[in-house]
Automatic annotation (TrEMBL):
It comes from Variovorax rhizosphaerae. One of its GO terms (molecular function) is oxidoreductase activity. Its EC number is 1.-.-.-. CDD domains: SDR_c (cd05233). Belongs to the short-chain dehydrogenases/reductases (SDR) family. Coiled coil: none annotated. It holds the Pfam family adh_short_C2. This is SDR family oxidoreductase. Keywords: Oxidoreductase. InterPro entries: NAD(P)-bd_dom_sf, Sc_DH/Rdtase_CS, SDR, SDR_fam.
């Protein structure tokens, strides 16, 4: 891993759900670019990633915030400002996945999924907005899912919540462009994390299915998503805004 730090300032990027999985890999990739990363989760734990050196880990700030609690992300942003940090970016990664047959989906489960996966994106974007405007602009990446364009049995609430992420991304990209704020939806395919560890393990039911359905015949890794997100924060992200970028090994377009 690179130890160079081209960005030694007090700028930082807020990543929600950064204690493990895809969020932790995003925190690694952004730190490898020399960025400071405010790692938010309910536990406030720093990313659990084996083999990360002290130089990278020193670029992480762990903060507790439950994205489903209105005001938690705003409070974390105020804390960062009080500590002298300037927020210049946000990655809305925290999310949950619960399956249920559509006819039996309870209103509680529907609300839980929409709160965690969609409403939280709106409230977190609103929370960082004043600091991004004060900084002269910034980058927001929302982690959606390739389920946003699929009809997946037992996933009514999850598919709807991730489709909402795409819509939120498009509206904010257009509305906040004049403030220099770019908003992009990164929509992963199946990525092996705690969210699906048992089903995706070799021999697990989901793994056997994926071996047939992903053209590359490999589930993606959290690092695949982290690398893409970091690219969007670099000059290579340049003219891109409002789009949904699928990172799914071609599964979403395979027939
Ligand atoms: P994990 O379950 O592995 O990790 C979830 C992370 O989010 C943890 O850091 C957890 O930390 C945090 N978190 C969960 N709920 C909250 C909350 N209410 N407030 C703050 N933090 C929270 O998930 P993944 O890494 O697999 O998924 C990350 C994102 O990627 C999700 O939005 C998911 O929908 C999306 N995605 C995942 C895919 C996959 O195949 N894994 C495919 C497509 C999209 P803590 O428990 O400490 O709060």
């Amino acid at each position: 891993m690179s130890d160079s730090n081209p960005n030694p300032s007090r700028d930082c990027v807020v990543v929600t759900g950064a204690s493990r999985g895809i969020g932790a890999a995003i925190a690694v990739a952004l730190a490898q670019q020399g960025r400071h990363v405010a790692c938010l989760s309910r536990s406030g734990a720093l990313p659990a990633v084996p083999g990360v050196n002290e130089v990278l880990a020193a670029r992480w700030i762990g903060l507790k915030a439950d994205v489903t609690q209105a005001g938690d992300v705003a409070k974390a942003c105020r804390q960062l400002a009080d500590d002298g940090w300037r927020v210049t970016g946000l990655v809305n990664n925290a999310g949950v996945h619960v399956e249920a047959p559509s006819a039996e989906l309870t209103l509680d489960t529907w609300n839980q999924m929409m709160d965690a996966n969609a409403t939280s994106v709106v409230t977190a974007c609103q929370a960082v907005y004043p600091q991004l405007v004060a900084a002269g602009g910034g980058v927001i990446v929302n982690i959606g899912s390739f389920f946003d364009k699929l009809g997946v049995k037992r996933n009514l609430a999850y598919c709807a919540s991730k489709a909402a992420v795409g819509a939120i991304t498009r509206v904010l990209a257009v509305e906040w462009a004049s403030k220099g704020i770019k908003v992009i939806d990164v929509a992963p395919g199946y990525i092996q994390t705690d969210l699906n560890a048992d089903a995706m393990a070799p021999g697990g039911p989901l793994r056997a299915y994926l071996d047939k359905r992903i053209p590359g015949r490999q589930p993606g890794t959290a690092a695949d998503v982290g690398a893409l997100v970091a690219t969007l924060f670099s000059p290579a992200g340049g003219f891109l805004t409002g789009e949904t970028i699928y990172v799914d090994g071609g599964q979403g377009i395979a027939h």
